[in-house]
TrEMBL record:
UniProt entry tagged with the keyword Transmembrane helix: yes
Organism the protein comes from: mine drainage metagenome
Keyword annotations from UniProtKB, A to Z: Membrane, Transmembrane, Transmembrane helix
TM stretches of this protein: 6-24, 36-59, 71-91
Protein's recorded name: Uncharacterized protein
Length: 92
């Protein structure tokens, strides 16, 4: 694995960004506004668990040195998903 951003992270961030833009466009539907922060927080937590699961899926305890980059890649995804979910929740 390279040191760049993992494809899972890019896909997850693009998905969350698209959802954010769609909901931001419809922000003025008064009945929906209170549920947006909880939705983004939940989406961030889901992304966190997906990232950690991805990292652990490819982790081999018998060969830690070679499997550590995959674990770190999953943790990158988890971190960015959490950060984006919390940020979007705070914006709304």
């Amino acid at each position: 694995m390279g040191s760049g951003v993992p494809p899972l992270t890019i896909g997850l961030l693009l998905f969350m960004g698209l959802v954010f833009l769609l909901l931001f466009q419809k922000k003025y539907a008064e009945r929906n506004i209170p549920s947006y922060p909880a939705f983004f927080t939940t989406l961030g937590i889901l992304g966190t668990f997906l990232g950690i699961s991805y990292g652990l899926w490819f982790f081999d305890p018998s060969n830690v040195e070679k499997s550590f980059p995959a674990l770190l890649s999953g943790l990158k995804t988890a971190f960015w998903a959490s950060l984006l979910g919390i940020s979007f929740a705070l914006i709304f």
